[in-house]
Structure formats: C-alpha cells, structure tokens
Amino acid sequence: MENNNGKKISHTIINVVGLKIIDLYIIKKFLGTFFYSILLILAIAVIFDISEKLDDFIETSTPIKEIIFDYYLNFIPYFAVLFSSLFTFISVIFFTSKMAYNTEIIAILSSGVSFRRMLLPYFISASVITIFAFVLSNFVIPNATKTKLEFEEKYIHKRPQTFSRKNIHKQVEPGVFIYLESYSTVSRTGYNFSIEKFEGGRLIAKTMADQITWDSTKNIWTMRRYYSRDLTGMTESIKEGNTKDTLLVLQPADFERRLNAVEAMSFTELNEFIEVSRMQGETNLTAYLIEKYKRTAFPFSTFILTLIGVAVSSKKVRGGIGSQLGTGLAVSFAYILFMQFSSQFAIGGRLPPLLAVWLPNLIFAVIATFLYRMVPR
Question: Which of 24, 36, 144, 240 is the most buried (most CB within 10 A)?
Fold first, then answer.
C-alpha cells in the first residue's frame, strides 16, 4: 500500500513538472556520470598534490587536521569547478554514445519524441551543474581560497611572499593622486613619492618625499625628506622637512596584494574592489575584470558543451564509444585552451575583457548550432 502511494506521488510530481520516465532516466545517467567522474578526478588530483607537497608537510610538521580541513577541503571546490565543463562534456558523450550504441536513441525518436524534446532532460541536468558551478565560484570558493592561502603562507611558503613594484600611479580618493617610483614589500617603503590634490581641475596642493614608510606602531605613513606646496588662489606656501606623518587612504596590503587574492573575494567584494581599483588607476584592472567575467562565462559553457556532446554522440558510429570520447576530449581541451588564449589577448590589451572571456562561448555556440542542425532526425 505504501509502495503504491509512493508511486502515485512520484508519478504526480513527474506529471506536474512535465517530465517523462525517459527524462528522469537521462537526468539520472547525466548527473550520476558527471558527479562520479568529478569525484574520481578530484581523488586523483588530491593524491598528486599530496605527493608533491608531502616533503613540505613533513618539514613544517603540519598537523594532519589542518591539512585535511584547512587545505584539502578548500582545495576540492576550486578543482570541482575547474573540471566541471570538461567532465560535463565527457559525461554527455559517454552515456549518450552508449545509449546510441544500444539503439536507445533510435527507440526514443521512433516513439514520437522529437530530438529537440529529447534535449530537455539534458538541459535540466546542465542547469543543475551550471548553478552548482556558479554558486561555488562566487560564494563558496572565495571563502575556501582565503583559508587555503593562509595555510599556504603558514606551511608551504618558507618565506613571506615578497616583491617590489615600480611606477605606481593611484587615485586614492576623488581628486587625490599618488605616485611611487618603486615600493618594497620587505621594508614597506616607497621611494620618490608624490601626492597631488586637484580641485575643479586645478592643482591646489602637491607634496614630494624621497621615501614614505609604513609605521606599524601608529598605523600611519611617515614621509622622509619631504617638500610640499599649497596653492590658494595666487598665494603659494612652501614647507619642507626631514620627517612628517601623513594619513593616506591606503594600507600596505594595497601594494602587497597578490594577483590571486581576487580569487578569495566573493562576487560582491570583487565588484567593490574593481570599482576602487578603477578609481585608483590600478594597472591590473584587466586581470580583475577577467576573473569577474569568468565566474559567469565558465559555468554558462555547460549548456554549450552539453549541446555539442549530444550532437556528436547521439548517432551510432563505426568507431564506437572510443572515437566519440576522443572527439569529446579534443573539443573540451580546445575550449579550455581557447579560453586561456583569449584571456591573454585581453591582458595584452588586444581585446576588451568581456569579449575575451565570452568569445570562446560565442564561437562554440555557433559550432554547437551547426552540429545540432546536422544531426539526423
């Protein structure tokens, strides 16, 4: 009796949603193959990473609890999204070509189901994976990356990540611009510093200093050997001295931030950071925009690769499943390589960031449409 009631409820749900038994069969095959293959590749990635970092863990006596919970549990979401498009494509080709080989596709189409209608469960499954990748990319991975970066700084990098930057131009607030010839993250000192303040397009104040150093006890910047000019109408006042404290809307972290730090920002934080960076004239703005647009473009590619996968594998071929899987791998790697190349063109200033990130999707969408039209009905 309970089994009959359960069946009635499940059939009612299926009828309300408009799905058929074959739809649920395809969704189960699609998502089951996808998550199984993702878990398998993640296990392999973790094993390889452990073998690479084992010496570091032993040398620093890293606690096993922190290795598992602070590093690898935060390592997994990033790689799950990274491989999601690749294994979406492979999953579609694997189980669809198997259905075609067993003449299940022919049986479905012969029963009166159109090829377009047969795509419905595929796109429902692709929607689940797209939402999964989008949520991970924008809300889960950033927090995970923060913990992972802190772990790497503590146990993997033997020394703090230090570097020097040159020719830094920033607008720190509206009408206020600073310039540094160079900045050292080791000493937290900038050289040949200048700050200019404009009002109504006119320069009203300018200060120059040989050095500017962060004073961690006072949490302020200290200028050394400075020279300042204040312009009020036709009056000019000049001051100079050996040291002077100054308040800037900047922290050492603004100079020391690594490029991959944007990966640790949520969707909202990244947007706010980009706006501040644009106001400050940040030179890495293109890289930040690419990171922002990738978080949408990469999950969306699931739909395009799903359509290509179905079009390629829905008919029985002489080479069998192996040849179709080979084709799937070739197309997947071509997409990933194209995504990387187009991003480099944006960084080089040859393409706008938005176009560069979405260009692979646009081109592969055209390919998907062509292959879809070529599929025998």
Answer: 144
Residue 10 has pLDDT above 50, yes or no: no
Tell me the three state secondary structure of residue 240: strand
pLDDT at residue number 62: 86
> Are 196 and 177 spatial neighbours (Cβ–Cβ below 8 Å)?
yes
What are the sequence ranges of the domains in the chain?
A: 2-157+287-374, 164-257
- Which H helix or E strand runs over 182? strand 176-184
pTM: predicted TM-score of the whole model, two decimal places: 0.70
C-alpha distances (whole Å) from 251 to each of 163, 216, 254 are 16, 10, 5
Give me the mean pLDDT over the 268-284 stretch: 79
CA distance 88 to 83: 8
pLDDT 10s digits, 191-225: 888 888 888 778 888 899 998 988 888 888 899 99
- SS3 string, 137-181, reads HHHHHHHHHHHHHHHHHHHHCCCCCCCEEEEEEEEEECCEEEEEE
Residue found under tokens 């000192």: 189
Listed in sequence order, the residues at least 6 apart from 78 whose beta carbon sits closer than 8 Å to its beta carbon are: 141, 144, 145, 148, 263
Q: Which long-range contacts (CB under 8 A, 24 or more apart) does 41-46 make?
A: 41/79, 41/83, 41/87, 42/76, 42/79, 42/80, 42/83, 45/79, 46/72, 46/75, 46/76
* DSSP letter for each residue of 243-290: EEEE--S--HHHHH--GGGGGGS-HHHHHHHHHHHHHHT-TTHHHHHH
How far apart are alpha carbons 339 and 335 in whole angstroms? 6
- Written as six digits, the tokens of 216 are 């961690």
Buried b (16+ CB within 10 A) or exposed e, 204-222: ebbbbbebbbbeeeeeebb
Residue 87's nearest CA partner among 364, 268, 282, 329 is: 329
Per-residue pLDDT tens for 86-127?
A: 888 888 988 888 888 888 888 888 888 888 888 999 999 999
Q: Are 360 and 335 in contact (CB under 8 A)?
A: yes
Rounded Cα gap, residues 296 and 267, in angstroms: 10
How many Å from the N-terminal Cα to the C-terminal Cα in the chain? Answer: 43
